[in-house]
Amino acid sequence: MQQHDTQELRQQDSRHHLHPFTDTKELGDNSRIITRAEGIYIYDSEGNRILDAMAGLWCVNLGYGRQELVDAAQQQMQELPYYNNFFKTAHPPAIKLAKKLTELAPEHINHVFFTGSGSESNDTVVRMVRRYWQLKGQPEKTVIIGRRNGYHGSTVAGASLGGMAPMHEQGGPMLPDIEHIAQPYWFGEGREMDPQEFGLLAARSLEQKIKTLGVERVAAFIAEPVQGAGGVIIPPESYWPEIQRICDHYGILLIADEVICGFGRVGQWFGSQHFNIKPDLMPIAKGLSSGYLPIGGVLVGDRVADLLIEQGGEFYHGFTYSGHPACAAVALRNLELLEQEGVIDRVRDVTGPYFARQWATLASHPLVGEARSLGLLGALELVADKGTMARFAPGIGSQCRDNCFQSGIVMRSVGETMVVSPPLVITEAEIDQLVTLARRSLDLTARQLG
Ligand code: PLP
What we know:
The chain is α/β, with parallel strands linked by helices. It has 2 domains: 32-65 and 342-449, Aspartate Aminotransferase, domain 1, CATH 3.90.1150.10; 68-341, Aspartate Aminotransferase, domain 2, CATH 3.40.640. The chain has 17 helices and 15 strands. The protein has a 4-stranded mixed β-sheet. The two termini are 42 Å apart. The mean pLDDT is 97. It binds pyridoxal-5'-phosphate (PLP). The site of pyridoxal-5'-phosphate (PLP) has 16 residues, from helix 6.
């Protein structure tokens, strides 16, 4: 095993490395250096073992240390480390992965466009959607409607589609012709209403927006089946059927961003299948390769693909690493393993329901206003007063997140919401441990508050 000088690494890190989503000045020489991982655990340079309840960044679905994925990468790197899929060429890993993905996807989806990440997938979505309406003879249909507090990536198109106000405030303007509607966040924004009524109301804000803009301008609606980075916001059951009805009624394209929900996170291959919706486009990434190598894509439904193929001619779009052979080989092996080992069925039938029961016990903690989950996604709402559900001043989430690290677990904070998304291979015993460590972190936070 490699030895690391933690202090030296930290100094070099703060001197030279601009981290994503980090206040570099505040970080100083304090980065936590992760050096290895196995199963659901990561290890830092000081030898601490930490339960990774976030599966990296919602992506290490098969867990760490899978030799089969290492072997797939090595074999492909030796045989053909790189070639592209531009200008009428292709290679076996990209072809086989495309076939496999379209077998797993809902029936009306038979094509995939490969990218290197979720953000690139959403950039691709914007170009594809606008091209679609241009080919339909309605080029004025350019507006894409997203949701406040949605997350679709960090490229200009990804940040614009997303509804993260702090991202919009930095270095605008964002892309034109992107609009946002309300999110279906019952705990945060609709608690005085019945959840199903609230779900309908949130969905109908799409209809309102279409009417305000004029349907002749609206191209598509984009949303995550469950908002991940926004705080694991699980919509009421009434929400998605109403969204589907509105998209169908007005003939606009429905885009389900499956970057987190895809590949088993909620107990189906895709979140759209859980919610029984029929998206025209599904951006994917993360769990596609369990995060072992960077790869993403857009699953393209027949409505869009047929027009692009039949009438579109050359699509002037693509990335050097679209369908990169080593990434595609690892992704293909990852999908085979998820299938052969019945990982997703286990999430649906065994670990998801078990997690739901255990996670729900945290609702009795004095700091927790709500404990919700779906599949292997979970969230805790931190409140100062369980009677009124009054919130703490900002900062409680990051305080609790730091305490999680102290307690030996990675959880993420989104404002005052703590979220988890563990590897899908987590066992029932490990779920018990996850919940125990989460409780310990909450206790520590409560003690600090006095
Ligand atoms: N879409 C969703 C729903 C995401 O959660 C993310 C990343 O967290 C992205 C897109 C962007 O993916 P990437 O970070 O691979 O660009």
